[in-house]
TrEMBL record:
Cofactor names: FAD
Signal peptide stretch: none
Protein name: Alkylation response protein AidB-like acyl-CoA dehydrogenase
Pfam families membership: Acyl-CoA_dh_1 (PF00441), Acyl-CoA_dh_M (PF02770), Acyl-CoA_dh_N (PF02771)
Provenance organism: Novosphingobium capsulatum
PANTHER family xrefs: ACYL-COA DEHYDROGENASE, BROAD-SPECIFICITY LINEAR ACYL-COA DEHYDROGENASE FADE5
Residue stretches making up the Acyl-CoA oxidase/dehydrogenase middle domain: 161-263
Family: Belongs to the acyl-CoA dehydrogenase family.
Gene3D superfamilies (UniProt xref): Acyl-CoA dehydrogenase/oxidase, N-terminal domain, Butyryl-CoA Dehydrogenase, subunit A, domain 2, Butyryl-CoA Dehydrogenase, subunit A, domain 3
Protein keywords: FAD, Flavoprotein, Oxidoreductase
InterPro entries per UniProt: Acyl-CoA_DH_CS (IPR006089), Acyl-CoA_Oxase/DH_mid-dom (IPR006091), Acyl-CoA_Oxase/DH_mid-dom_sf (IPR046373), AcylCo_DH-like_C (IPR036250), AcylCo_DH/oxidase_C (IPR009075), AcylCoA_DH/ox_N (IPR013786), AcylCoA_DH/ox_N_sf (IPR037069), AcylCoA_DH/oxidase_NM_dom_sf (IPR009100)
Acyl-CoA dehydrogenase/oxidase N-terminal domain span: 75-155
Record domain Acyl-CoA dehydrogenase/oxidase C-terminal: where: 274-438
Amino acid sequence: MSYADAAGTIVAQILALPEFVRVQALFPYAGLDEAMLLDIIGAAGDLAEGVIEPFNAQADQVGCRLEQGRVRLAPGHHDAWQAFVAGGWNTIEGAPQWGGAGLPMLVHSACEELLNRASPAFGMLPTPMRCATKVIERYADPALCAEWAPRLVDGSWAATICISEPDAGSDVPRLRTAAVPHADGTWRITGEKIWISFGDHDLTPRIAHMVLSRTPEGAHGPAGLSLFLVPSDIAGQRNAVIVRRIEEKLGLHGSPTCALGFEAATGHLIGTPGRGLAQLFTMIIGMRLSVGSQGAGLSGAAASLAWRYAAERRQGGRADAPPVTIDQHGDVQRMLLGLAARAEVTRGLVLTASAVADLQAQEDDEAARTEAGLLLAWLLPITKNFAAEAASLCANDAIQVLGGAGYTREWPAERYLRDARVLAIYEGTSGMQALDLALRRVLGDEGRAYRAFLAKARGDAGRLGNATLGALLDMLEQAASSLDKPTATVVAYPFLQLASLATTGWIAARLAALSGSPVHDHLAALGRHWLLLAQAQALAEAALTSHGQALVAAFDDVDRGYLG
Protein backbone atom coordinates (compact mmCIF):
# COMPACT_ATOMS: atom_id res chain seq x y z
CA MET A 1 0.00 0.00 0.00
CA SER A 2 1.41 3.39 -1.02
CA TYR A 3 1.24 6.45 1.21
CA ALA A 4 -1.56 7.78 -0.99
CA ASP A 5 -3.52 4.56 -0.50
CA ALA A 6 -2.89 4.69 3.24
CA ALA A 7 -4.11 8.30 3.37
CA GLY A 8 -7.31 7.30 1.58
CA THR A 9 -7.95 4.45 4.01
CA ILE A 10 -7.33 6.73 6.98
CA VAL A 11 -9.83 9.25 5.63
CA ALA A 12 -12.39 6.46 5.12
CA GLN A 13 -11.94 5.44 8.76
CA ILE A 14 -12.32 9.03 9.96
CA LEU A 15 -15.48 9.61 7.97
CA ALA A 16 -16.96 6.39 9.37
CA LEU A 17 -16.31 7.34 13.00
CA PRO A 18 -19.58 8.03 14.85
CA GLU A 19 -17.71 10.74 16.80
CA PHE A 20 -16.60 12.56 13.66
CA VAL A 21 -19.88 14.37 13.08
CA ARG A 22 -19.57 16.01 16.49
CA VAL A 23 -15.89 16.85 15.90
CA GLN A 24 -16.90 18.59 12.66
CA ALA A 25 -19.48 20.61 14.56
CA LEU A 26 -16.97 21.66 17.21
CA PHE A 27 -14.47 22.85 14.55
CA PRO A 28 -16.83 24.60 12.07
CA TYR A 29 -14.11 26.91 10.69
CA ALA A 30 -11.94 23.96 9.62
CA GLY A 31 -14.16 22.80 6.76
CA LEU A 32 -13.35 19.16 7.43
CA ASP A 33 -15.19 17.44 4.61
CA GLU A 34 -13.80 14.49 2.66
CA ALA A 35 -11.97 16.65 0.13
CA MET A 36 -10.27 18.73 2.83
CA LEU A 37 -9.21 15.64 4.79
CA LEU A 38 -7.78 14.05 1.64
CA ASP A 39 -5.85 17.23 0.88
CA ILE A 40 -4.34 17.53 4.36
CA ILE A 41 -3.62 13.87 5.07
CA GLY A 42 -2.55 13.23 1.47
CA ALA A 43 -0.03 16.10 1.70
CA ALA A 44 1.35 14.59 4.93
CA GLY A 45 1.78 11.32 3.05
CA ASP A 46 3.63 13.10 0.23
CA LEU A 47 6.08 14.65 2.70
CA ALA A 48 6.51 11.34 4.50
CA GLU A 49 7.17 9.37 1.31
CA GLY A 50 9.21 11.93 -0.58
CA VAL A 51 11.35 13.48 2.15
CA ILE A 52 11.21 11.77 5.53
CA GLU A 53 11.38 8.09 4.54
CA PRO A 54 14.53 8.53 2.40
CA PHE A 55 16.15 10.45 5.27
CA ASN A 56 15.22 7.72 7.75
CA ALA A 57 16.99 4.93 5.85
CA GLN A 58 20.23 6.91 5.98
CA ALA A 59 19.78 8.10 9.57
CA ASP A 60 19.29 4.52 10.75
CA GLN A 61 22.70 3.59 9.38
CA VAL A 62 24.65 6.72 10.38
CA GLY A 63 22.98 7.74 13.65
CA CYS A 64 23.93 10.73 15.79
CA ARG A 65 27.24 11.65 17.39
CA LEU A 66 28.60 13.83 20.20
CA GLU A 67 31.20 16.40 19.11
CA GLN A 68 32.80 18.86 21.56
CA GLY A 69 29.83 18.56 23.91
CA ARG A 70 27.14 19.07 21.24
CA VAL A 71 24.93 16.56 19.45
CA ARG A 72 25.29 16.35 15.69
CA LEU A 73 22.39 14.75 13.88
CA ALA A 74 22.41 12.41 10.90
CA PRO A 75 22.94 13.89 7.41
CA GLY A 76 19.70 15.05 5.87
CA HIS A 77 17.95 15.79 9.17
CA HIS A 78 18.18 19.56 8.70
CA ASP A 79 16.63 19.44 5.23
CA ALA A 80 13.85 17.09 6.41
CA TRP A 81 13.13 19.31 9.42
CA GLN A 82 13.03 22.46 7.31
CA ALA A 83 10.55 20.82 4.93
CA PHE A 84 8.43 19.75 7.91
CA VAL A 85 8.45 23.23 9.45
CA ALA A 86 7.93 25.03 6.14
CA GLY A 87 4.84 22.93 5.53
CA GLY A 88 3.37 23.99 8.87
CA TRP A 89 3.10 20.39 10.11
CA ASN A 90 4.14 21.35 13.63
CA THR A 91 1.23 23.78 13.84
CA ILE A 92 -1.70 21.43 13.04
CA GLU A 93 -3.31 21.32 16.49
CA GLY A 94 -1.53 24.38 17.89
CA ALA A 95 -3.66 27.20 19.31
CA PRO A 96 -4.36 29.97 16.75
CA GLN A 97 -3.23 32.59 19.28
CA TRP A 98 0.31 31.20 18.94
CA GLY A 99 0.16 30.80 15.17
CA GLY A 100 -1.26 27.27 15.16
CA ALA A 101 -3.83 25.96 12.71
CA GLY A 102 -6.19 24.96 15.53
CA LEU A 103 -7.25 21.71 13.85
CA PRO A 104 -8.56 18.70 15.79
CA MET A 105 -6.27 16.17 17.43
CA LEU A 106 -7.97 13.66 15.13
CA VAL A 107 -6.44 15.32 12.06
CA HIS A 108 -3.07 15.65 13.75
CA SER A 109 -3.01 11.95 14.69
CA ALA A 110 -3.93 10.94 11.13
CA CYS A 111 -1.02 12.94 9.71
CA GLU A 112 1.29 11.82 12.50
CA GLU A 113 0.64 8.17 11.64
CA LEU A 114 1.99 8.67 8.12
CA LEU A 115 4.98 10.68 9.30
CA ASN A 116 5.80 8.01 11.89
CA ARG A 117 5.37 5.33 9.25
CA ALA A 118 8.19 7.05 7.39
CA SER A 119 10.37 7.65 10.46
CA PRO A 120 9.36 7.29 14.10
CA ALA A 121 12.81 8.67 14.98
CA PHE A 122 12.00 11.91 13.17
CA GLY A 123 8.65 12.11 14.97
CA MET A 124 10.34 12.01 18.37
CA LEU A 125 11.19 15.74 18.14
CA PRO A 126 7.86 17.51 17.46
CA THR A 127 5.90 15.56 20.10
CA PRO A 128 7.55 17.09 23.20
CA MET A 129 7.37 20.49 21.52
CA ARG A 130 3.59 20.24 21.16
CA CYS A 131 3.09 18.77 24.61
CA ALA A 132 5.36 21.25 26.38
CA THR A 133 3.40 24.06 24.75
CA LYS A 134 0.22 22.81 26.42
CA VAL A 135 1.87 22.92 29.84
CA ILE A 136 3.41 26.34 29.23
CA GLU A 137 0.22 27.95 27.95
CA ARG A 138 -1.76 26.56 30.87
CA TYR A 139 0.63 27.16 33.78
CA ALA A 140 3.51 29.51 32.89
CA ASP A 141 3.40 33.22 33.61
CA PRO A 142 2.27 35.35 30.63
CA ALA A 143 5.71 36.68 29.73
CA LEU A 144 7.32 33.24 29.65
CA CYS A 145 4.39 31.87 27.69
CA ALA A 146 4.56 34.70 25.14
CA GLU A 147 8.28 34.06 24.71
CA TRP A 148 8.12 30.30 24.19
CA ALA A 149 4.68 29.19 22.99
CA PRO A 150 4.73 30.80 19.50
CA ARG A 151 8.22 29.48 18.79
CA LEU A 152 7.42 25.97 19.94
CA VAL A 153 4.28 25.94 17.81
CA ASP A 154 6.04 27.09 14.64
CA GLY A 155 9.02 24.79 15.20
CA SER A 156 11.70 27.48 15.49
CA TRP A 157 12.54 26.37 19.07
CA ALA A 158 12.35 22.89 20.59
CA ALA A 159 11.55 21.23 23.93
CA THR A 160 12.39 18.16 25.99
CA ILE A 161 10.80 16.40 28.94
CA CYS A 162 13.29 15.71 31.75
CA ILE A 163 11.89 13.35 34.38
CA SER A 164 13.94 10.15 34.84
CA GLU A 165 17.21 10.05 36.78
CA PRO A 166 19.91 7.36 37.07
CA ASP A 167 18.49 6.04 40.36
CA ALA A 168 14.84 6.87 39.68
CA GLY A 169 13.46 5.90 36.32
CA SER A 170 9.73 5.42 36.74
CA ASP A 171 10.08 5.86 40.52
CA VAL A 172 9.21 9.54 40.34
CA PRO A 173 8.83 10.12 44.12
CA ARG A 174 12.58 9.42 44.51
CA LEU A 175 13.77 12.14 42.10
CA ARG A 176 16.65 14.14 43.59
CA THR A 177 17.33 16.97 41.13
CA ALA A 178 17.31 20.14 43.26
CA ALA A 179 16.06 23.66 42.57
CA VAL A 180 17.28 26.62 44.64
CA PRO A 181 15.73 30.12 44.36
CA HIS A 182 17.92 32.97 43.12
CA ALA A 183 17.71 36.65 44.01
CA ASP A 184 16.57 37.64 40.50
CA GLY A 185 13.47 35.40 40.69
CA THR A 186 14.96 32.58 38.67
CA TRP A 187 16.10 29.24 40.06
CA ARG A 188 19.30 27.20 39.91
CA ILE A 189 18.72 23.58 38.88
CA THR A 190 21.24 20.88 39.77
CA GLY A 191 20.97 17.18 39.01
CA GLU A 192 21.23 14.40 36.44
CA LYS A 193 18.50 13.42 33.96
CA ILE A 194 18.48 10.44 31.58
CA TRP A 195 16.50 9.08 28.62
CA ILE A 196 16.00 12.57 27.15
CA SER A 197 14.89 12.37 23.52
CA PHE A 198 16.60 15.08 21.46
CA GLY A 199 18.22 16.31 24.67
CA ASP A 200 20.50 18.34 22.44
CA HIS A 201 20.67 18.97 18.69
CA ASP A 202 21.49 21.60 16.12
CA LEU A 203 18.07 21.91 14.45
CA THR A 204 16.91 24.88 16.55
CA PRO A 205 18.88 27.58 18.40
CA ARG A 206 17.05 27.06 21.72
CA ILE A 207 15.59 24.13 23.63
CA ALA A 208 13.20 24.36 26.58
CA HIS A 209 14.07 21.58 29.02
CA MET A 210 10.96 20.88 31.12
CA VAL A 211 12.59 19.61 34.32
CA LEU A 212 11.00 18.06 37.41
CA SER A 213 12.98 19.21 40.45
CA ARG A 214 12.66 19.32 44.22
CA THR A 215 12.63 22.73 45.92
CA PRO A 216 14.28 23.25 49.35
CA GLU A 217 10.94 23.14 51.15
CA GLY A 218 9.62 20.31 48.97
CA ALA A 219 8.48 17.28 50.92
CA HIS A 220 9.64 13.77 50.10
CA GLY A 221 7.58 12.05 47.45
CA PRO A 222 5.71 13.46 44.45
CA ALA A 223 4.14 16.33 46.42
CA GLY A 224 7.55 17.99 46.74
CA LEU A 225 8.27 18.17 43.00
CA SER A 226 8.00 21.38 40.99
CA LEU A 227 8.29 21.99 37.25
CA PHE A 228 10.87 24.29 35.69
CA LEU A 229 11.64 25.52 32.21
CA VAL A 230 15.41 25.45 31.79
CA PRO A 231 16.52 27.10 28.53
CA SER A 232 19.48 25.57 26.72
CA ASP A 233 20.69 29.09 25.85
CA ILE A 234 20.24 32.47 27.53
CA ALA A 235 20.96 35.65 25.58
CA GLY A 236 23.08 33.69 23.13
CA GLN A 237 25.17 31.97 25.81
CA ARG A 238 24.97 28.30 26.75
CA ASN A 239 23.15 27.59 30.00
CA ALA A 240 24.80 25.15 32.42
CA VAL A 241 23.22 22.08 30.78
CA ILE A 242 25.81 19.46 29.86
CA VAL A 243 25.34 16.52 27.49
CA ARG A 244 26.92 13.58 29.34
CA ARG A 245 26.46 11.06 26.53
CA ILE A 246 24.26 9.77 23.73
CA GLU A 247 22.84 6.32 24.44
CA GLU A 248 23.65 3.42 22.11
CA LYS A 249 20.24 1.97 21.24
CA LEU A 250 18.56 -0.95 19.49
CA GLY A 251 16.57 1.33 17.20
CA LEU A 252 15.46 4.92 16.53
CA HIS A 253 19.03 5.75 15.54
CA GLY A 254 18.03 9.10 14.05
CA SER A 255 16.75 10.28 17.44
CA PRO A 256 19.50 11.08 19.99
CA THR A 257 18.62 9.85 23.49
CA CYS A 258 20.77 11.88 25.89
CA ALA A 259 21.90 11.93 29.48
CA LEU A 260 21.97 15.55 30.67
CA GLY A 261 23.67 17.16 33.64
CA PHE A 262 22.24 20.35 35.12
CA GLU A 263 25.02 22.20 36.94
CA ALA A 264 23.26 25.11 38.68
CA ALA A 265 21.48 25.86 35.40
CA THR A 266 19.16 28.85 35.31
CA GLY A 267 15.50 27.88 35.23
CA HIS A 268 12.03 29.39 35.52
CA LEU A 269 9.31 28.00 37.77
CA ILE A 270 6.22 26.82 35.91
CA GLY A 271 2.96 27.15 37.83
CA THR A 272 2.62 26.31 41.51
CA PRO A 273 5.50 24.94 43.64
CA GLY A 274 4.92 21.31 44.58
CA ARG A 275 2.50 20.74 41.71
CA GLY A 276 5.02 19.83 39.01
CA LEU A 277 3.96 16.24 38.56
CA ALA A 278 0.27 17.11 38.37
CA GLN A 279 1.04 19.83 35.82
CA LEU A 280 2.97 17.40 33.65
CA PHE A 281 -0.15 15.23 33.39
CA THR A 282 -1.43 17.91 31.01
CA MET A 283 0.98 16.33 28.54
CA ILE A 284 -0.16 12.74 29.03
CA ILE A 285 -2.94 12.81 26.43
CA GLY A 286 -0.65 14.08 23.69
CA MET A 287 2.29 11.84 24.60
CA ARG A 288 0.28 8.63 24.80
CA LEU A 289 -1.62 9.38 21.61
CA SER A 290 1.69 10.05 19.86
CA VAL A 291 2.92 6.60 20.89
CA GLY A 292 -0.35 5.29 19.45
CA SER A 293 0.38 7.04 16.15
CA GLN A 294 3.90 5.58 16.13
CA GLY A 295 2.48 2.12 16.68
CA ALA A 296 -0.16 2.57 14.00
CA GLY A 297 2.42 3.86 11.54
CA LEU A 298 4.84 1.00 12.05
CA SER A 299 2.04 -1.60 12.09
CA GLY A 300 0.72 -0.30 8.78
CA ALA A 301 4.18 -0.21 7.25
CA ALA A 302 4.87 -3.81 8.30
CA ALA A 303 1.52 -5.07 7.02
CA SER A 304 1.93 -3.28 3.69
CA LEU A 305 5.45 -4.64 3.21
CA ALA A 306 4.40 -8.21 4.01
CA TRP A 307 1.42 -8.16 1.63
CA ARG A 308 3.48 -6.62 -1.17
CA TYR A 309 6.32 -9.09 -0.77
CA ALA A 310 3.99 -12.10 -0.56
CA ALA A 311 2.26 -11.04 -3.80
CA GLU A 312 5.62 -10.99 -5.62
CA ARG A 313 7.68 -13.78 -4.06
CA ARG A 314 7.21 -17.09 -5.86
CA GLN A 315 7.79 -20.40 -4.17
CA GLY A 316 6.03 -23.76 -3.95
CA GLY A 317 3.09 -25.23 -5.76
CA ARG A 318 3.08 -28.19 -8.12
CA ALA A 319 6.55 -29.34 -9.14
CA ASP A 320 5.48 -29.61 -12.80
CA ALA A 321 4.17 -26.02 -12.89
CA PRO A 322 5.66 -22.58 -12.35
CA PRO A 323 5.97 -21.64 -8.65
CA VAL A 324 3.10 -19.67 -7.16
CA THR A 325 3.27 -16.44 -5.21
CA ILE A 326 3.50 -17.23 -1.51
CA ASP A 327 0.25 -15.41 -0.75
CA GLN A 328 -1.45 -18.48 -2.20
CA HIS A 329 -0.29 -20.62 0.75
CA GLY A 330 -2.71 -21.03 3.65
CA ASP A 331 -0.24 -20.34 6.43
CA VAL A 332 0.96 -17.15 4.75
CA GLN A 333 -2.64 -16.02 4.22
CA ARG A 334 -3.24 -16.58 7.93
CA MET A 335 -0.29 -14.34 8.82
CA LEU A 336 -1.20 -11.68 6.28
CA LEU A 337 -4.79 -11.46 7.48
CA GLY A 338 -3.66 -11.19 11.09
CA LEU A 339 -1.16 -8.46 10.18
CA ALA A 340 -3.67 -6.38 8.25
CA ALA A 341 -6.44 -6.76 10.83
CA ARG A 342 -4.17 -5.84 13.74
CA ALA A 343 -2.83 -2.81 11.87
CA GLU A 344 -6.30 -1.57 10.93
CA VAL A 345 -7.84 -1.87 14.41
CA THR A 346 -4.74 -0.14 15.81
CA ARG A 347 -5.36 2.74 13.44
CA GLY A 348 -9.05 2.77 14.37
CA LEU A 349 -8.21 2.77 18.08
CA VAL A 350 -5.86 5.76 17.74
CA LEU A 351 -8.33 7.72 15.59
CA THR A 352 -11.18 6.99 17.98
CA ALA A 353 -9.17 8.00 21.04
CA SER A 354 -8.09 11.19 19.25
CA ALA A 355 -11.67 12.07 18.36
CA VAL A 356 -12.74 11.49 21.97
CA ALA A 357 -9.83 13.72 23.10
CA ASP A 358 -11.24 16.47 20.87
CA LEU A 359 -14.66 16.05 22.44
CA GLN A 360 -13.18 16.14 25.93
CA ALA A 361 -11.34 19.37 25.14
CA GLN A 362 -14.00 21.17 23.09
CA GLU A 363 -17.49 20.13 24.21
CA ASP A 364 -19.40 23.12 25.57
CA ASP A 365 -21.83 20.97 27.57
CA GLU A 366 -20.34 19.89 30.89
CA ALA A 367 -22.05 16.50 30.93
CA ALA A 368 -20.84 15.70 27.41
CA ARG A 369 -17.34 16.86 28.30
CA THR A 370 -17.32 14.67 31.41
CA GLU A 371 -18.54 11.64 29.48
CA ALA A 372 -15.82 12.10 26.87
CA GLY A 373 -13.22 12.54 29.59
CA LEU A 374 -14.19 9.26 31.24
CA LEU A 375 -14.11 7.37 27.95
CA LEU A 376 -10.72 8.91 27.15
CA ALA A 377 -9.39 7.85 30.56
CA TRP A 378 -10.22 4.25 29.62
CA LEU A 379 -8.85 4.51 26.09
CA LEU A 380 -5.48 6.15 26.80
CA PRO A 381 -3.61 3.31 28.54
CA ILE A 382 -5.11 0.79 26.13
CA THR A 383 -4.27 2.88 23.06
CA LYS A 384 -0.71 3.48 24.21
CA ASN A 385 0.02 -0.15 25.04
CA PHE A 386 -1.94 -1.90 22.32
CA ALA A 387 -0.43 0.25 19.57
CA ALA A 388 3.05 -0.26 21.03
CA GLU A 389 2.71 -4.02 21.12
CA ALA A 390 0.96 -4.12 17.73
CA ALA A 391 3.99 -2.47 16.13
CA SER A 392 6.33 -5.17 17.49
CA LEU A 393 3.97 -8.02 16.64
CA CYS A 394 3.33 -6.77 13.11
CA ALA A 395 7.04 -6.20 12.46
CA ASN A 396 7.83 -9.67 13.80
CA ASP A 397 5.20 -11.28 11.57
CA ALA A 398 6.40 -9.29 8.55
CA ILE A 399 9.88 -10.71 9.07
CA GLN A 400 8.34 -14.17 9.20
CA VAL A 401 6.49 -13.61 5.93
CA LEU A 402 9.67 -12.37 4.24
CA GLY A 403 11.63 -15.28 5.66
CA GLY A 404 15.41 -14.93 5.41
CA ALA A 405 15.01 -11.71 3.45
CA GLY A 406 13.19 -10.16 6.39
CA TYR A 407 16.19 -10.77 8.63
CA THR A 408 18.49 -8.76 6.36
CA ARG A 409 18.94 -5.02 6.11
CA GLU A 410 18.06 -5.16 2.44
CA TRP A 411 14.43 -4.93 3.59
CA PRO A 412 13.05 -2.52 6.23
CA ALA A 413 11.21 -5.17 8.29
CA GLU A 414 14.11 -5.62 10.71
CA ARG A 415 14.28 -1.85 11.21
CA TYR A 416 10.56 -1.75 11.98
CA LEU A 417 11.12 -4.34 14.71
CA ARG A 418 14.07 -2.47 16.21
CA ASP A 419 12.26 0.87 16.16
CA ALA A 420 9.05 -0.62 17.55
CA ARG A 421 10.49 -2.32 20.61
CA VAL A 422 10.85 0.80 22.73
CA LEU A 423 7.22 1.87 22.28
CA ALA A 424 6.10 -0.44 25.07
CA ILE A 425 8.73 1.06 27.39
CA TYR A 426 8.70 4.85 27.18
CA GLU A 427 5.78 7.01 28.30
CA GLY A 428 5.00 4.27 30.82
CA THR A 429 5.80 0.58 30.41
CA SER A 430 3.19 -2.07 29.67
CA GLY A 431 3.09 -2.92 33.37
CA MET A 432 2.50 0.71 34.31
CA GLN A 433 -0.34 1.02 31.80
CA ALA A 434 -1.83 -2.19 33.21
CA LEU A 435 -1.71 -0.89 36.78
CA ASP A 436 -3.19 2.43 35.67
CA LEU A 437 -6.10 0.61 34.03
CA ALA A 438 -6.77 -1.86 36.85
CA LEU A 439 -6.18 0.35 39.89
CA ARG A 440 -7.43 3.70 38.62
CA ARG A 441 -9.93 3.02 35.85
CA VAL A 442 -11.64 -0.03 37.34
CA LEU A 443 -10.98 -0.13 41.07
CA GLY A 444 -10.48 3.62 41.55
CA ASP A 445 -12.90 6.53 41.12
CA GLU A 446 -15.84 4.12 41.51
CA GLY A 447 -14.88 2.56 38.18
CA ARG A 448 -16.42 5.46 36.26
CA ALA A 449 -14.07 5.21 33.26
CA TYR A 450 -14.62 1.47 32.96
CA ARG A 451 -18.38 1.88 33.24
CA ALA A 452 -18.37 4.67 30.64
CA PHE A 453 -16.64 2.40 28.15
CA LEU A 454 -18.86 -0.55 28.97
CA ALA A 455 -22.02 1.49 28.42
CA LYS A 456 -20.72 2.87 25.13
CA ALA A 457 -19.59 -0.50 23.80
CA ARG A 458 -22.75 -2.31 25.01
CA GLY A 459 -24.83 0.27 23.21
CA ASP A 460 -22.92 -0.30 19.97
CA ALA A 461 -23.08 -4.09 20.35
CA GLY A 462 -26.86 -3.87 20.56
CA ARG A 463 -27.18 -1.30 17.78
CA LEU A 464 -24.95 -3.34 15.45
CA GLY A 465 -26.31 -6.71 16.53
CA ASN A 466 -22.76 -7.98 17.04
CA ALA A 467 -22.81 -11.07 19.27
CA THR A 468 -18.99 -11.44 19.27
CA LEU A 469 -18.54 -7.97 20.73
CA GLY A 470 -21.17 -8.86 23.32
CA ALA A 471 -19.21 -11.98 24.27
CA LEU A 472 -15.98 -9.98 24.60
CA LEU A 473 -17.70 -7.49 26.89
CA ASP A 474 -19.12 -10.36 28.96
CA MET A 475 -15.59 -11.69 29.52
CA LEU A 476 -14.33 -8.23 30.42
CA GLU A 477 -17.17 -7.63 32.85
CA GLN A 478 -16.64 -10.96 34.59
CA ALA A 479 -12.90 -10.32 34.94
CA ALA A 480 -13.43 -6.79 36.21
CA SER A 481 -15.85 -8.00 38.86
CA SER A 482 -13.17 -10.30 40.28
CA LEU A 483 -10.43 -7.65 40.47
CA ASP A 484 -9.24 -6.58 43.89
CA LYS A 485 -6.30 -4.50 45.07
CA PRO A 486 -4.31 -7.34 46.71
CA THR A 487 -4.08 -9.30 43.43
CA ALA A 488 -4.23 -6.43 40.95
CA THR A 489 -0.46 -6.11 40.62
CA VAL A 490 -0.25 -9.78 39.62
CA VAL A 491 -3.10 -9.95 37.12
CA ALA A 492 -3.10 -6.36 35.85
CA TYR A 493 -1.24 -7.21 32.64
CA PRO A 494 -3.47 -10.08 31.47
CA PHE A 495 -6.44 -7.91 32.44
CA LEU A 496 -5.01 -5.11 30.28
CA GLN A 497 -4.71 -7.57 27.41
CA LEU A 498 -8.31 -8.70 27.89
CA ALA A 499 -9.51 -5.10 28.10
CA SER A 500 -7.56 -4.27 24.95
CA LEU A 501 -9.17 -7.15 23.08
CA ALA A 502 -12.63 -6.01 24.18
CA THR A 503 -11.84 -2.42 23.22
CA THR A 504 -10.39 -3.29 19.82
CA GLY A 505 -13.32 -5.66 19.40
CA TRP A 506 -15.52 -2.57 19.77
CA ILE A 507 -13.46 -0.84 17.05
CA ALA A 508 -13.65 -3.96 14.86
CA ALA A 509 -17.42 -4.27 15.27
CA ARG A 510 -17.82 -0.73 13.98
CA LEU A 511 -15.60 -1.55 11.00
CA ALA A 512 -17.41 -4.83 10.33
CA ALA A 513 -20.69 -2.95 9.93
CA LEU A 514 -19.39 -0.82 7.03
CA SER A 515 -20.50 -1.47 3.45
CA GLY A 516 -21.29 0.21 0.17
CA SER A 517 -17.83 0.94 -1.25
CA PRO A 518 -14.63 -1.04 -1.97
CA VAL A 519 -12.75 0.57 0.93
CA HIS A 520 -15.66 -0.07 3.29
CA ASP A 521 -15.82 -3.71 2.20
CA HIS A 522 -12.08 -3.97 2.84
CA LEU A 523 -12.40 -2.47 6.32
CA ALA A 524 -15.40 -4.66 7.12
CA ALA A 525 -13.49 -7.82 6.19
CA LEU A 526 -10.61 -6.88 8.48
CA GLY A 527 -13.04 -5.98 11.25
CA ARG A 528 -14.68 -9.40 11.02
CA HIS A 529 -11.31 -11.13 11.06
CA TRP A 530 -10.13 -9.21 14.13
CA LEU A 531 -13.30 -10.17 16.00
CA LEU A 532 -12.51 -13.82 15.24
CA LEU A 533 -8.97 -13.46 16.59
CA ALA A 534 -9.95 -11.31 19.55
CA GLN A 535 -12.54 -13.73 20.88
CA ALA A 536 -10.10 -16.65 20.81
CA GLN A 537 -7.30 -14.64 22.46
CA ALA A 538 -9.63 -13.14 25.05
CA LEU A 539 -10.51 -16.60 26.37
CA ALA A 540 -6.85 -17.15 27.25
CA GLU A 541 -6.39 -13.72 28.86
CA ALA A 542 -9.60 -14.14 30.88
CA ALA A 543 -8.33 -17.50 32.15
CA LEU A 544 -4.99 -15.98 33.16
CA THR A 545 -6.71 -13.11 34.96
CA SER A 546 -8.87 -15.56 36.91
CA HIS A 547 -5.79 -17.36 38.29
CA GLY A 548 -4.93 -14.42 40.54
CA GLN A 549 -2.01 -15.06 42.91
CA ALA A 550 -1.44 -18.47 41.32
CA LEU A 551 0.37 -16.65 38.51
CA VAL A 552 3.30 -16.03 40.88
CA ALA A 553 2.92 -19.01 43.22
CA ALA A 554 6.06 -20.73 41.93
CA PHE A 555 8.29 -17.66 42.21
CA ASP A 556 9.94 -18.51 45.55
CA ASP A 557 10.60 -22.09 44.40
CA VAL A 558 12.79 -20.99 41.51
CA ASP A 559 16.52 -20.84 42.25
CA ARG A 560 18.25 -18.28 40.07
CA GLY A 561 21.49 -20.18 40.51
CA TYR A 562 20.12 -22.85 38.17
CA LEU A 563 18.98 -20.43 35.51
CA GLY A 564 20.86 -20.51 32.24
